[in-house]
## 1
Amino acid sequence: MVVLETERLTLRDAGLDDAEFILRLLNEPSFLRFIGDRGVRTLEDAQRYIADRLIESYVRNGFGLWVVERKESPGPIGICGLVKRDALPDPDIGFAFLPEHWFSGYAFESAASVKEYAFGALRLPRLLAVVNADNAASVRLLEKLGLRFVRTIALSSGEEPVRLFEREAPA
Ligand SMILES: CC(C)(COP(=O)(O)OP(=O)(O)OC[C@H]1O[C@@H](n2cnc3c(N)ncnc32)[C@H](O)[C@@H]1OP(=O)(O)O)[C@@H](O)C(=O)NCCC(=O)NCCS
């Protein structure tokens, strides 16, 4: 199901057919470094991740991380969407793209539409984001979306502290 459409992109629900793409994305050095190791090593692991994490969130929350495709050339290039974590009071925005699709503005274009959807259709009062201090691309993108650094927090004990960003819904 297509959830959002921008000038160049569509954002749709992930399905089990996306396992090959998810397997690759989750093992990209950039994903492992800046987001974490989800322990997805095989196509079966990827299918389980899609069912238990991505689809589970659509069902539970009515939102989640969606698959981003280009209109001009279909096929997954990244994920972008909203995550609801137990450790945070409000949903946070997340994004990750395959390296060959960086620097084209796709991350900003998809994240801007997710932000509008969050404040518009979903009527969220506040949008959060969590990011590693040394993730310059992500910090830049969040600032372009109008999110501001709030403080450094630990999402769970034993994990590296992350930077919490926030933006209130427009009045
Ligand atoms: C973060 C990420 C999605 C950005 O993707 P992208 O397609 O390059 O982003 P965009 O092209 O939309 O650019 C967004 C802004 O960030 C800037 N940017 C991109 N890479 C950058 C870098 N390495 N250093 C500094 N700024 C960077 C861009 O220049 C742009 O700002 P500008 O309009 O002022 O020039 C991508 O680097 C990625 O997938 N990283 C791995 C996963 C990740 O870290 N996700 C975020 C976890 S919180």
## 2
Amino acid sequence: MKFRIIPVTPFQQNCTLIWCEQTLEAAVIDPGGDIERIQAVIEEEGVKLTQVLLTHGHLDHVGGTAPLAREAGVPILGPHKEDAFWIDGLDQQSAMFGFGKVEGFTPDRWLDEGDTLTVGKEQLEVLFCPGHTPGHLVFFHRNSQLAQVGDVLFQGSIGRTDFPRGDHATLIRSIREKLFPLGDEVRFIPGHGPMSTFGEERRTNPFVADHRG
Ligand SMILES: [Zn+2]
Ligand SMILES: [Zn+2]
């Protein structure tokens, strides 16, 4: 599996294009906006978009979903249905974050812990990791030990929990009980900022390092 990170929106959200090298079938994870830029990368890599995947319902992660999925004629999968209130409230989110008008949508399928997604011949495992939002998902590609974690975990930090239905203790539990057991070597793409590994965060992250108990 190959991937390319495409930072989008004024929040520099790490929209990610992933694809199967054998079939060139691709998925876009978290198309927050700037869909011309995303479409240009899809064209440049010569891959075929087959689905849009969403980690959670925040605007900077989902704002470009409706037009991107419609123009490519592909389904929208995720997030977990507990994030439906965020997606239903896209207009309010747009006002709150100072974005322009965004097009609403309903996912074709909500996802849950234990679901498996197929991109060409590659498989992604779905993990339910609430805390930043109540319906946040993480996508894990076991073969390449790569996780797309959205706003759960960042290099040196963790997701905000001061939004409606955010919960700090739940977030810490998601990171320690769902993500870290995947292994220290696992590399992750966060929703914002540089990549890191779970091992590095276990050593140095001021919020979730092992020595923080
Ligand atoms: Zn978020
Ligand atoms: Zn974000």
